[in-house]
Amino acid sequence: MTRIAANTPCRVRLILNGKERVGQAESRMLLSDFIRHELGATGTHLGCEHGVCGACTVRVDGVASRACLMLAVQAEGRRIDTVEGLCDGDALGDLQAAFKRHHALQCGFCTAGILNSCAEFLDKTPEPSELDVRDMLSGHLCRCTGYTGIVAAVLEVAAQRRGAPPETSHV
Amino acid sequence: MQAQSTVEALGRFAECGYARERVEDNALLRGAGRFGDDLATTAGTLQAAVLRSPHAHARLRKLDITSALAIDGVHAVLTGEDVREWAAPFAVGVRQPMQHWCLAVDKVRYVGEPVAVVVARDRYVAEDALDAVEADYELLDPVVDPEVAAQADAPVLHEGVGANVVNDRHFSYGSPDKAFAEAAHRIALKVRYPRSSCTPIECYVVIADYDVAAGTYDVTANFQGPFALHSVMARALKVGASGLRLRTPPDSGGSFGIKQGVFAYVVLMALAARKAGAPVKWVEDRLEHLQASSSATNRVTEIEAAVSAEGRISALRYDQLDDCGAYLRAPEPATFYRMHGTLTGAYDIQHLEARNRVVLTNKTPTGLNRGFGGPQVYYALERLMQRIAVALDLDPLEVIRRNLVPADAFPYRAPAGSLLDSGNYQSAIEKGAAEGGLDELKQRRDAARREGRLYGIGYCAVVEPSISNMGYITTAMTPAEREKAGPKNGAVATATVGVDPLGGVTVHVSSTPQGQGHRTVAAQVVADVLGLEFETITVNVELDTQKDPWSNASGNYSSRFAGAVAGTVHEAASRIRKRVAAIAAHQFEVDASCIRFGDGRVTVADDDRLSTSFRRMAGTAHWAPALLPEGEPGGLRETAFWSPPQLAAPDVNDHINSSLCYGFVFDYCGVEIDKVTGRVRLDRYVTLHDAGRILNPAVLDGQVRGGFAQGLGAALMEKFEYGADGSFQAGTLADYLIPTTMEVPEPVILHMETPSPFTPLGAKGAGEGNNMSTPVCIANAVADALGESDIELPLTPSRVRAMIGIDEPDAPEGLEPIKPAAGSGSALQASDSVDMPGDPATVFDAMLDPKILAKIIPGCHDLQAVGDNAYKADVTVGVGMIRARYKADVNLSELEPPHALKLSGVGRSAMGTAEGSARVRLTAIEGNRTRLDYDYEAAIGGKFAAVGARMLQGAARVIIGQIFSRLAVELGGGSNAGSWMKRIVDLFRRLFGRSKK
Ligand code: FES
Ligand code: FES
Hints:
The complex is a heterodimer of chains A (171) and B (997). Chain A is of the alpha+beta class. Chain A has helices spanning 31-38, 94-101, 111-124, 130-137, 148-161; strands at residues 9-16, 19-26, 57-60, 63-66, 79-81.
């Protein structure tokens, strides 16, 4: 394994939400800082920087991962998907729309990370039980919502994707 | 001023009362929110890191910043000297000779207290430089326990005051002595409420700049108010209010009161920017946040009730000791006085006595935290209600019922002064019991108990105050002191509604939300008043003290939005409506009373032909002033200020109406306790809220659920742990546990609506009820399940296990448990042994050889003899992800060649202190080998203690073990220490695992 000194500047090239992006990172720079401040994708948030809260979760080659526990240089050549890539064109994607319908966020600070975990989860678990959903979400801390709306939104999207008719909005 | 019907249904439904999806979510869900750390900064903005005290109580003797400044990329270091020159201490809410500066100038009084600020090119470099600042401390005895701190012989934090109790007030309302003398029963209870915080997921962010030319500061911070603190900040910076331009970002990632505490860092970073001569940005990290931002108070309360034979309470007596931490930081001692008028809760109790003492200890200063004062008061009061039921052998709900304020008594003046505005507590309880299925819950309990399971039901009834009286805090002063200081009262809310030349409506409120959907609800209110589509209304919630209307009560606290701010939005919108109606009446040549608003149009009643779009009609005020009626000045913008007359200053007898509105919360729950693990499982939680008129039910339910989850955390999981030496031991979210999806069940939420007569829309606040009710409701259920009276939060499995008398299970084979040593901090002790080659004399001599000693101490860079078997060493120690370089004194003593010696070390580093000693015994064993047995003790303070409590035992074991295993290697052999070390290293890997990839 090559050893690089902590503050050696490195060039990092990765695929962010489908687009190739290149930036400078000292070898010790966290992936989260790189995405936010070097590439300007500030939708990924930091709540603890020690791997517990889940706010920084992005998908690395499709797998939900803590951006605060990875160095930018480790992302070289990889596909990084963040909340900014979840939309359906200009419109909210189905998962985002369900979050809105179910009031699954308040301050929205935890939301990006949660959406990324849910996105991966729903790809892999088309028929989740409530317990499955709760288990997946237990890697995230949300201080605002008490989680009810989040669980409901994920279950609803799973059902929709299986072909159940979408629930209408409140009225 | 109760609003009359705000909508004249021209074919559209009312927005208010409708569960409108939130307008905020559109940006937040796309990752397009703009939080403090997302904002564009001025070119040349530098980053700050804060050097913090590793000690709970010490004199700061010297600060050497030379090496820090020498680091490439470091621009400046702000120290106490600069602060003394440019700033003043923060104003304090009680008259005492104590100083609180934004940075320690002579003493440090809590672990994490700012000592210096390094400003550098980036945060990474700034943090490097923190390690290079050399701070020299003279350690003083700390005091952590509030009851100890209140004693006469306790170490004193503020010498000028001479004691740690900095405010002591006695209150008496009615004739409590007489009532107690005449009572059939006197029932008393002592409770301790622990320290915790609602810990928003976004930490503090400050971006500060200093204008040398004007001598003014410009700061953006995710401050939440109250903006009364703007005056405190400006005075600390020695400028007038206009000399501190304070702005808030569009989005803020939660606060729950806690972001009030960023105000101290607004001042600190403003000074850092001045020192650096450049804009400075500081983003607090989680360790900083947990250990040093702010928290709720911990409180010790003795409470007693005078009770009749039937369970009717005639008098209450409180003796409360509130621990505000190391400094009385504004707005403390508000935690006491926010609840003062409401100390009798939901009950009709005529006589009341209270003694309130504020005590300072070597802990983080306290401040706003959701529920503010409520959890502490209701924990005592509602636990007492349950005790009364047990003592009199009554049903706890029956005791609650017998004492409630009568339904026909509203508005009801409580003895300490609260004017309970509206409610019907009896019907709320009946509704809650019926719709929440209380009878069925009791059957579940009975069935569980028949099977021998531990099951209990808890109740609580809570009055939830909202819209704080800015004058309540002065109740901490004596009437004579108040007289001198001048009256303070009221709660001014403000809102602005403007219509632009194209007829678009923009609303501004100075309520600085952190996720409560203010933009959505304000738009709903305006849509109703002006008869417009919700989507057409733009709401801005950023606050700029230089440009926007605001007042000292502005901000997001005391659940003031629905009652005060939304009501003021209604008032401003109504003024616009009145003006547009006058313009329309003039154009249509009818009386203004005939004008109707709806469907985006302005129409004459009963004559549909006379109808114009709102946009066009309102646009007239900009485009064609000549067409306006007399007296209409043109342009369309209205700023309303509103302050309710009911919020008077405290009177000479200390009566204070501490809040404008008083909602009602009735909760009950069933819990089952696992007899093996001690886990408390919520079987069902029912919570009924009467928060007056409901503006958006989905937003309201969100508040209830969030508050419930936090209340559950406070009941079962959360506590800021401190060591006896004042070291902070909950510095990560793996140490300070917050409920996840797996811990939070869905509560049964019920509502009723008794409008407030005192707010424009009849709404009351509802954001804090469950933070007040849930902790004690769960505690009451656990008390019922276990038949215990002494319940202390958080009810963690280990605490519950201890209560039900289950011992800890044996440690797994091969892992002998390490006992925490008595005394200070993260102290621990254990023993182990190693075999090594050579006879005891060889081993003994090797240990006295400095060359060998230097090699066997892990991380030793240098070892210099300073006396007989005494050395100065330079050692780097790492635990998990943090490492620190210690200057250590190493000694070998109690020498009994070749059988025994003692190896000890004391080290200091930027991360705090570490002390350890090992008693070594050498025994000859077969094959010219020696068995080295050692018992060691270690105590670690500072950052290691804060982030590594879970890992310290293992780490100490590894590090001390390494000394002796390396000795074995030096002597030419291996050691038998490999397997457990590997286990521990593996454990570290798991705990602080790399990201899963
Ligand atoms: S910021 Fe990465 S897990 Fe908390
Ligand atoms: S929405 Fe605020 S933390 Fe989850």
